[in-house]
Amino acid sequence: MENEPQHIPLYRQLVEYYRQAILTQQSPPGARIDSITLMMDRFNVSRETAKLVLQKLAAEKLIVKKAGKGSFVADLGPRQQLWGVVVPFFSAQIDSLLGYLHEFASLADKKLEHYIDYNNWREEIRLVGSMIRQRYEAVIVIPTFDETRTAGFYRNLVSGGTVVTLLDHTMTGSYFTYTIQSYDLGVKRAVHYLTGKNPGNLVFIKNSLWAGRNMVQELMEETFKSFVGQETPERQAMVLDNLQTLSREFLLQRHITGILCSDDADAIRVIGRLQQWNFLIPDDISIISYGNTELAQYFTPGITSIDCHCRDMAARTADIIDQHLQGRDTRYCQYVIQPDLVIRET
Q: Which of 338, 344, 318, 8 is nearest to 183 (CA)?
């Protein structure tokens, strides 16, 4: 509370404080909310201010007042025919996943909406909690890239019948419902192909556009380095944090003959630079991208890519939701999709 701007009325600051506690389930459904007296003592406010805070929360249907007992977080009502998706950012691969999720939601006669949390774990929790309060039928979450901050939230989540499931990746959700891909297997298949194409060294180009820690790319980097060492110990496995550090001199001096890009969009940019620098693809340098979205499929030259099977992930996710709605126990439905290499012209 002490960090709130002073120009915001105190009662509004307190309403927002309790609202966020309810949406993030620090105060789960059925939990007792501070009484007027306790609120007065905790925040040094007047009785009228405390009464107004409870009135506003009740008007938003976040709490219910029980005569002689106090105020409690409201229980969750009937579900809407609505699926929500929370994503950490927007990319070609996420666009592909959303397209397939829309397809399966439409087949189930449901509406689908998506929200971006900008790789902010607090915002992810707030969005998920808000959709549960709004009684979305299902909430699908592509987690922020540092799940250590959200694990406790999902472990203790009270969803009230809303299906909440993780998608694409998870580092800490072994106890939770998910449909993910095996990123490490995808990287291994890319490395195996690149080491068989040309005799030189390899580089993995990460995407560092998004704020905060990225545990997925940390896993990909670790797998890349270790597997190159296992496959061909005589080669060097190098990593660039972003595409901006790639140069013609770097490629020549380090004798790079294979490049793995973390997404299809970066691969297109790399191809453009290599062509400008008069490298022959794939004779001088072979390129693999991760994703196999339409960018990789329809770009010229066609990009050799790791297919993470976005449609399969969306189909499994829709199946989890359907099973739950039919009354089956889906708490431990966990699917891991195996990526495949699609060889094209690069």
A: 338
